[in-house]
Amino acid sequence: MDKIQEPIRLEMEEFEGRFRSSMRSEVALLDKITHYIVKRKGKQMRPMFVFLTAKMLQDTNDSTYRAAALIELLHTATLVHDDVVDDAQKRRGFFSINALWKNKIAVLVGDYLLSRGLLLAVKHRDYKVLDITSSAVREMSEGELLQMEKARKLDITEEVYFDIIRKKTASLIASCCASGAASVTEDETVVEQMRLFGETVGIAFQIRDDLFDYGSDDGIGKPTGIDIKEKKMTLPLIYALNNCSKEEKRMIINTVKNHNTDQKRVAEVIALVKAKGGIDYTVKRMNEYRDRALTMLNNCPDNPARRSLQELVNFVIDRAK
Question: Strands 90-91 and 94-95, how do they pair?
Answer without folding.
Answer: antiparallel
